[in-house]
Design a protein that fits this description.
By secondary structure, this protein is of the alpha+beta class. It has helices at residues 2-54, 88-104, 140-143, and strands at 59-65, 69-76, 113-122, 129-139.
């Protein structure tokens, strides 16, 4: 009986060793992918903070999509004074935000486009809601090379 038990223990130990080896094998590429993704994440967080400060926005959201497109949502405290039409100052601000991405995002050369959405909050504190004041798409060829 002891020999059978030792054989079973040996198989269980061997199975555990193989599982751990497989996990370690997956761990290295997984950590490499995570590190690569974190590099972009860090750049996106810094870009978000800097855009918020540069444009005195109440909030900014920056999303990297498939590494080929950056979408920036800029929340403004005061909506443009228009009756449903896109305000000319919104066009100019969206262009300036896209140019800021061009000049300050290290991964700009890999992008195909920069998307900018300007948003504002309407209503009172508890009953407030979000309104899109304009959505803009700028191709990299339209923005030109980075000016650092």
């Amino acid at each position: 009986m002891t020999i059978v038990a030792a054989g079973i223990d040996h198989l269980l130990v061997r199975e555990a060793i193989m599982r751990n080896a497989f996990r370690r094998l997956l761990l290295v590429p997984g950590l490499a992918l995570l590190a690569a993704g974190c590099g972009d994440l860090g750049e996106v967080l810094v870009l978000s903070r800097d855009i918020k400060r540069e444009f005195a926005a109440s909030d900014v959201s920056v999303n990297l999509q498939d590494g080929r497109s950056v979408e920036v949502s800029v929340w403004r405290d005061t909506p443009p004074a228009t009756d449903g039409a896109v305000a000319p100052e919104s066009d100019a601000m969206a262009r300036r935000v896209a140019e800021y991405v061009r000049d300050h995002y290290a991964g700009y050369d890999r992008l195909a486009e920069v998307r900018v959405e300007l948003k504002s909050r309407r209503g009172a504190a508890v009953n407030s809601y979000a309104v899109s004041d304009g959505f803009y798409v700028f191709a990299r060829r339209e923005l030109g090379p980075a000016r650092k």
